[in-house]
Design a protein that fits this description.
Order of helices and strands: HEEHEEHEHEHHEHEHEHEHEHEHEHEHHH
Number of helices: 16
Low-confidence stretches: 7-14
Strand order of the largest sheet: 5-3-1-6-7-8-9
Largest sheet: 7 strands, parallel
Number of strands: 14
Distance between the termini: 37 Å
Helix content: 40-55%
Shape: globular
CATH superfamily of the largest domain: Glycogen Phosphorylase B
Strand content: 15-25%
Organism: Bacteroides stercoris
CATH class of the largest domain: Alpha Beta
Mean pLDDT: 92
Keywords: Transferase
Number of domains: 2
GO molecular function, one term: glycosyltransferase activity
Radius of gyration: 22 Å
CATH topology of the largest domain: Rossmann fold
Protein name: Glycosyltransferase family 4 protein
CATH architecture of the largest domain: 3-Layer(aba) Sandwich
Amino acid sequence: MAVYNIAAVYLNYYKLMKQAIHLLETLKHGGAENVAYNYAKVLSNLGVSSTFVAMDSSAEYKRMLQEQGICIEKQITGSLLDSTDYVFIHSSKNLFRLLPYIRKLKRRKTRVVYIQHLFYSEVKFRILSILINWLCTDFIRITPITEKIVGKYIKIPVSFIVNFYMAKYSRDAYADIRKQVRDELNLPQQQTVVMFSAVFRKGKGLEDCLELAGMLSDNNNIIFLVVGDGPESYLLDEYKGSNIIRIGFINDVERYLIASDIYFFPSKYKKEMLPMALVEAVDTDTAILAVKNTITDFVLDGLTYSELEDAYKSLVEKCCPSGFTHYDEAYAKSMLEKLL
């Protein structure tokens, strides 16, 4: 009888929750997909359950969603929209997939929220904005670099919500994680560890990372932890120094950030919107050395470097900045409460 009562309570609670669907291209670890997952976790705490809609999925990502109680569907249907209060669009293609249901959405007064994850040229964005303004009720801007173009073309309400990170580990666990990871890598606890993570492609900064490591190859107190993979992996193969530990691609970057002292972010990738790697580093209170641009100056309060020699000097003199504003669960909850 007690089990039945508990089940009934949960069923009634679920019925009282509002419903959101998240429209994605695929269900796998990636920029938009990880942001959608973080949104779903915060929305659940605000009384909104989530369903993810995408054709393709990886087994690991699907399992992660199911563990959080997130439902999965392969396509949009009228019946799914009948019980939906919020639609979060995470890719421009899904704008077109919603078109057959526009009358239903308007009639039900469903909130349709477009989140711009990708960088578009002004010509493409101007065309896209026509559909956004017609179909959507809200627009989420995630980065300072699109402020002007969004202000110029988007006529529906705009919220500025920086991509946030949901920490896997509590602060109480940091000391144990740091020791565990360093033991796994055979690193002394007192060693200064500089971490770099990226998809290794042009503009992401691997070349600058290796150049900085080369400048410090005679400094036995500093070691570089390089996380990632990609087309420029050959640059690592060609590196002759012994002060780099190569990790490869991993899903749990947070553990390695906790084990590191400094996060190095030299990315000059022109289509970067708001890199989650940088937000993760900020939220773990890791000291950060980042190249100067509009995004890094915003996230890091202007405490960035212009030349690689400046980064070298900061490392040698042990004066890397830290203690920046967190874009974490508390931030996310406050911003989404305003949106809803």
